[in-house]
Amino acid sequence: MLPGEESSPDRRRDQRTASSPGRRTPGRRTPGRPDRYGQALLAAQGVAMAGLAWPGHPRWALPRPVAALAALVGLAGATVAEEGVRFLGRDLTPFVEPGEDARLYTTGPFSASRHPVYAGGLLLGAALAVLRRRPEPLAAFALLAGVLHLKANVEERHLRERFGVAYVEYAAATPRLFGVPRTNL
């Protein structure tokens, strides 16, 4: 790059891919395209979410207080997830690698959870699994919890690589999903 030229994200991407047009360098991803593991995690997440709506009649009775509590937990989860989605705006992606222009979010819902969308989704998924009163949605919820745990692990690795010390410090002070943020007292 010549002095005075700007280094835009598009220009940097063009420079990275110009060295081997049409070929991928082993171990490197094509920008904007998830790797196979990320694609598999996304597919597994979709299967687990679909399993929460497994068809069929309820298999057992559910006491009203339990149903009411589950409904409240589901509403809280939907609210938390929606706030995380709203806060991310255009940076929202279903993949584990943040977009090239993504920034590190540490305020709003991200001040209480590193993954508020996952946290809210887990609360909503748990509520749906209980309210469906069938074993299949309960198994689907267990699968969803496992998949989101794996997605969070991979996503956090990418965030550490992208944001370095800033992400490490944020992660040290902020719960992954639920909990009380830690402060230096």
Which labels suit this protein?
185 residues; mainly alpha; 6 helices; 0% strand; disordered N terminus
Helices, strands, pairings?
Elements: H1 9-18, H2 36-51, H3 64-88, H4 116-132, H5 135-163, H6 165-173
Helix pairs in contact: 2-5, 3-4, 4-5, 5-6
Notes on the structure:
The protein has helices at 9-18, 36-51, 64-88, 116-132, 135-163, 165-173. Helix 3 packs antiparallel against helix 4 (116-132). The protein is mainly α. The protein has a domain at 74-96 and 107-178. The protein starts with 8 loop residues before the first helix and ends in a 12-residue tail after the last helix.
Question: What is this entry, summarized?
Answer:
Helix content is 57%, strand content 0%.
State the shape: globular
- Total of DSSP H or I helical runs spanning 4+ residues: 6
* Biggest β-sheet strands, sense, barrel: none
Helical fraction: 55-70%
Please state the CA-atom Rg, rounded to the nearest Å: 20 Å
Helix-strand sequence: HHHHHH
Low-confidence parts = 1-28
